[in-house]
Amino acid sequence: QNVTLSFTDPNYAISVTALLFFILPLGFTLFFGRTFCAGACPLGAIQDVLIMKPISLPKWLNKTLGLIPYLYLSLAVLFAATGTDFIICRYDPFVGIFRMDAKFHMVVLGIAFLLMGMFVARPYCRFLCPYSVLLSWMSRFSKWHMTITPSKCIQCKLCANSCPFDAIDFPTNEKEVIKSGLGPKRFLTYALIIPLWLVLGVFVGAKSHTFLSKANPDVYLAELLISNPEIKNDKDNIDVQTFLSSGKTLDILVKEAEVIRSKFYIGSMIAGGFMGLVIGMTLLNTVVFRKRQDYEPHRGNCLSCARCMNYCPVEK
After folding, report:
1. Residue 166's closest CA among 65, 260, 266, 278?
2. Which pLDDT does position 178 carry in this prediction?
3. How far is CA 38 from the centre of its chain?
């Protein structure tokens, strides 16, 4: 969010500390996989401690829930770029607990995630964390990503159900792939409709920009004063009274709100197009056949916790 705002607002300068916190985990991930998730992230650590009896989720459910971080990331970038809010900080379910200043509803949300994490391992990391999207992208290209076996896989299958995050890819059975109907025809069909998903996303984004822009304080206040002019006399409304005491006229506020809304119009279309592309590529990925002979960690989804390595009897 700070990085986005530093690009879009010339008056904002990001601190070196914040920039390093953003870049360093991505750099390490590019070389070693998601080691930040495994050994450095406090939000992941507090969830990891409470994993008791993790269950395996169906692939379709993992794929579907996996779209939420992309949506969250899109909205976070949109809101930061328009100077509206840092929603990741505001709605993080665990940061307030660490700081001991969380609001009641955020404490409830954080506890709910922790309770859920007893059975669905690290749900926030897998199905909500927007930073995990960037880490997943970097991890796919990691040079020295961890492997389950230090040598040749002997197909003992001991590691097959060892991952609580469903991040192990099994060896492919070509006969089953043929029976499932995954072939060039379905691949071409899904590939051809990606532009349609893109256009649909842009359309939905354009239609939703008015609603999304209301999250901006200036837009909200301008609409409030226009639709309810009598609210100027409400001495208990802090936002209105603060505006009136600032000396700014309603015309100036409306013009500023129009500029912000125009930014939301462009940003919402970009965010919508991005989500359409993500949905299209996710569907395409379900019909992509990748030949594997061994049990391998999925580089994008693997959190590099190394639990699976303990199940492997092969030694160097």
Report:
1. 65
2. 60
3. 17
